[in-house]
Design brief:
The structure is a single chain. This protein is of the alpha/beta class. Among the domains are: 51 residues; 93 residues, Signal recognition particle alu RNA binding heterodimer, srp9/1 (2-Layer Sandwich). Helices cover 37% and strands 8% of the residues. The chain has 15 helices and seven strands. The strands form two sheets. A five-stranded mixed β-sheet has the order 5-4-3-6-7. The two termini are 23 Å apart.
């Protein structure tokens, strides 16, 4: 039920989770990593910096733009309000006054609605009268017309750019664009606009797509995700069958971000094998098994946010949202410990946001070291969640611990949010 109707955000408010960490790291009744529960070994020392330096997470708020920011990228039109003849007549002596200056009374910004214009290209034709009179030869020449964007089509670059922007950037459906065109007196059908976008994508933008894909595959880190949809009028496939859009996004490497969308009729492993056959960098994905075929020639990195969700799903429903303020580690289930550990790591990562490349990863590994030993020490405790659910969370965790130490200094991202937030 939670998967169907629950919240989809990865940030899950758990009452008391920040206060709880101070108790966890300082609880001396916990076993050391690698020591069976109840073995009497001394637990790791509490990490004071970790427990006390993470502020309570607050939602990020976008600052309201100031007036100077609103007008910073606009062209300025200056409107002079002239004085009338009566106003230029001096009220004291009646002589004509001279304008000595001006001051700004107010400012506003104007929006010019979209204008639709019919443009007809006429070629000039010229004939040589001398050749006709002397030789009886008709010599003609015609001016060269600019090539059409799409052969035998009325589409212009500005019209197609408008349709692509509304469809892709603003997520406006074709039938809504059709209604807007009709309101402006242009009965342009949705099928026509869709055909424009497809033709330009295949014939004009494909070379750019190939260049960007090649550049993305040369980057150190890639974030990858996929989502399904239904496509009409596909050959030999019913309209109700699932098709997939695969998304590639480059990592935070200081270079311009590249996002690549690739359509495929299937979600099988042959798609990532084809796309990434020449890639040998770091591959950030979720736990979908179709990516496993790539692990022989590249390093696969999993998502901490997905691991946190699996630990949450492993908790019994009765304790999932309970208030954990003041609880000791002995009162928690392993699933709760796994969830809170992942939450702690993500909070550390958020606190270190903005640090130079290399420094962020070094400090993150230093701050989470004690928590890692503590978490491993909880492996054999009582009240374990079901094998199926806990297995997902624990497998993700142990792969995280290995992969995060294999990554180079320039890699800074723990989650796959770069691809997830771009999947439509």
């Amino acid at each position: 039920m939670r998967k169907l109707f629950g919240r989809s955000r990865e940030t899950l408010p758990i009452p008391g989770q920040i206060d709880l960490f101070g108790n966890i790291w300082g609880d001396t009744s916990l076993p050391r990593a690698g020591t069976p529960a109840g073995g009497g070994a001394t637990p790791p020392a509490p990490d004071e910096a970790l427990a006390g330096s993470i502020p309570e997470e607050k939602p990020d708020r976008k600052a309201r733009p100031k007036r100077k920011d609103i007008f910073s990228n606009m062209e300025t039109e200056k409107v002079i309000i002239p004085l009338s003849d009566d106003e230029l007549t001096c009220q004291i002596c009646g002589s004509r006054m001279k304008v000595i200056g001006e001051e700004m009374a107010r400012e506003e910004f104007r929006i010019t609605p979209m204008q639709v214009t019919r443009v007809q290209y006429f070629r000039q034709t010229a004939a040589c009268p001398e050749c006709r009179e002397e030789y009886g030869v008709f010599a003609f020449v015609n001016s060269e017309a600019p090539p059409a964007l799409i052969d035998h089509s009325m589409a212009s670059p500005s019209a197609v750019a408008y349709v692509v922007h509304q469809k892709i950037t603003n997520a406006m459906t074709y039938y809504r664009m059709e209604m807007e065109m009709e309101s402006r007196g242009v009965p342009l059908g949705r099928e026509t606009m869709a055909a424009w976008v497809i033709a330009c994508a295949l014939n004009i933008l494909r070379p750019l797509y190939d260049i960007l894909l090649g550049e993305a595959l040369r980057r150190l880190v890639l974030h990858v995700d996929e989502t399904w949809g239904q496509v009409l009028h596909e050959e030999v496939r019913p309209a109700t069958s699932k098709s997939y859009i695969w998304l590639l996004v480059t990592g935070e490497d200081g270079l311009p971000t590249i996002s690549i969308y690739h359509y495929a009729p299937t979600r099988g492993h042959e798609i990532p094998e084809f796309l990434f056959k020449d890639y040998d960098g770091y591959f950030h994905t979720d736990k979908y098994g179709g990516y496993g075929c790539l692990e022989e020639h590249l390093t696969r990195c999993l998502c901490w946010a997905h691991g946190r969700r699996k630990w949450l799903e492993a908790m019994p429903a009765s304790i999932r949202n309970r208030d954990r303020t003041g609880l000791k580690a002995g009162d928690l289930t392993p699933a709760e410990i796994g969830f809170l550990y992942c939450e702690k790591i993500l909070l550390i990562d958020k606190k270190l946001k903005g640090l130079p490349p290399g420094e962020k990863q070094t400090r993150r590994l230093e701050e989470e070291k004690t928590g890692s030993r503590f978490f491993l020490g909880m492996a054999g405790r009582r009240g374990s969640p079901s094998r199926e659910q806990a297995g997902k969370g624990s497998e993700l965790f142990f792969r995280f611990q290995r992969k995060v130490r294999e990554l180079p200094e320039r890699w800074e991202v723990l989650t796959n949010k770069h691809s997830g937030k771009n999947v439509f």
